[in-house]
Amino acid sequence: YNATDAQPVDLTQAAESSVHAVVHIRAKQLSKTQTVQSMPDIFDFFFGDGRGQQRQIQTQPRVGFGSGVIISKDGYIVTNNHVVDGAKKLEIMLSDGSKITGELVGKDTYSDLAVVKVSSDKIKTVAEFADSNSLTVGEKAIAIGSPLGTEYANSVTEGIVSSLSRTVTMQNDNGETVSTNAIQTDAAINPGNSGGALVNIEGQVIGINSSKISSTSAVAGSAVEGMGFAIPSNDVVEIINQLEKDGKVTRPALG
Predict the structure, then answer these.
(1) In whole angstroms, what is the distance from residue 136 CA to residue 109 CA?
(2) What residues are annotated to the active site?
């Protein structure tokens, strides 16, 4: 219930006002040619140089997917860095199903955020960002994105803000450290939701969905449910302003 008027909170309006600002992102890496050294066999020891043979193999292109949020009518979209990292081609699917090509503007490994640019011709809805410093534990939260790919695009899940200021530290596929100050939520977040929006009952973005805990070794490998994390909107705005301007984030460092 909304404390101001004691009326049930209607989440359908919040979903309707924000779902069209969330997109599906398909990131494709080109195939790679690798040179591998085979182990020497008995014939190579007697008739060759004893070092085996070299041969080239070509890997299949890897396709990743995730979500993104339209942040301006100029065609800028924010997503997670791990969604677009290493991609050679970005395909953006809007909420109406139309597909356009995206271009990476800038990315930041440490915060796990990236900005993609698309043509502004088809941009109709832009997300509105809320002040994440005003969030309270227990208020409603809605996650919007494309869990498991385009088949489930524009999915909406409901939960609450479970906690604030959680420090989430992990390593990405390249072994680089990612550390975020995160909002914890029990709204269902699954692979493909990364980069999508976490919104409040007003339909305003309060965070960018980034990760979840699916299992833990702390209790004999127990499965974990309802522990998702989103990067707070205030942190997102600060990072994307730098990425739009410079294509990277500059931080002070000792040494």
Answers:
(1) 28
(2) 82, 112, 194
